[in-house]
Amino acid sequence: MTKIITVEEHFQAPFGESAPQAQPETKVDPRGPKGNLVDHYLQNFDKRLAYMDKYNIDMQVLSDAGKSPQMAPDAQAVAGCRQVNDTLAAEIKKHPTRFAGLATLPVNVPDAAAEELERAVTQLGFKGALIAGLANDHFLDEPQYFPIFEMAAKLDVPIYLHPGMVRASERKMLYHSSAYSDQIGDMISLAGWGWHMEQGVQMLHLILSGLFDKLPNLKLISGHWGEFVPNFLERLDEFTGMVDPHLDRKFSEYYRNNVYITASGMFTQPQMDLGLAEMGPNHVLWAEDFPYLRREDQVASFLEQAPIKPDVREKIGHENAEKLFKLN
Prior knowledge:
By secondary structure, the chain is α/β, with parallel strands linked by helices. It has a single domain (about 5-165, about 190-325), classed as TIM Barrel (Alpha-Beta Barrel), CATH 3.20.20. The chain is about 45% helix and about 10% strand. It is built from 14 helices and nine strands. It has helices spanning about 35-45, 45-55, 75-95, 110-120, 145-155, 170-175, 180-190, 195-210, 210-215, 235-240, 250-260, 270-280, 300-305, 310-325, and strands at about 5-10, 60-65, 100, 105, 130, 160, 220, 260, 285. The strands form two sheets. A six-stranded parallel β-sheet has the order 4-5-6-7-8-9. The two termini are about 20 Å apart. One of its GO terms (cellular component) is cytosol.
């Protein structure tokens, strides 16, 4: 059986005794009434290990993408991120062959975020960082956020670009309609469509800003099979090439060279086929999006049964993650 390392797996840790809790990321829980299991797994590492053992998951790369201190007010975010990272580091130390970590960063304080990334990698042994959504409605191509990416390139660690909460005004304008219920509008504005589209736009901003010309060894990770971007690589090449070029290479060349995509629990063959066709087998990683999604035996069985070559299966299952995150 293929070794399984999943790389978009979430935990939650309290931060700041008096800090107000940030708005949680409202992910879809396919288990309906069993939704309380999300909280059950987010903070209980023993239960998480039991789940991993039961469903043949060898390692999880953990990150905080829910009630994260990244979204706390600036004055609380820096201390909160340190606190959460220290908590995760302590859990990883107990089970270093089963868990690895991605740092939580106070993105709205970019210089402090770069410093915390350096601390998390060099002192805590983390393998990179995860940034959830926008930074106070600002895309990350704005120059004030460059030190974060510069530090990641210096340390040679990837940054996972994860969806965040789509603002209420955008949800209402783009996704609500009198023709269907507000519940349907909310669903498609978040996990059904909206936050994936927004995160795809985030990637467009970063590549078109020339980020990879400035930092050619920087590596980014995009979940949910690339948040729509792989579907449009050829069209993006065509239409961005119609204007005066300001980049050294085609859009798709940056994407295929510097970006890795993950499944994020979307275990469907057409998405896998497209991802492999556009990215090649060396830039696809496996992920469940645990515990917001709990695919259970599918985590291993889908990959085992997929109509792909054995060497490709090994790359997706664990080898690409081991190389990218330096897990060996």
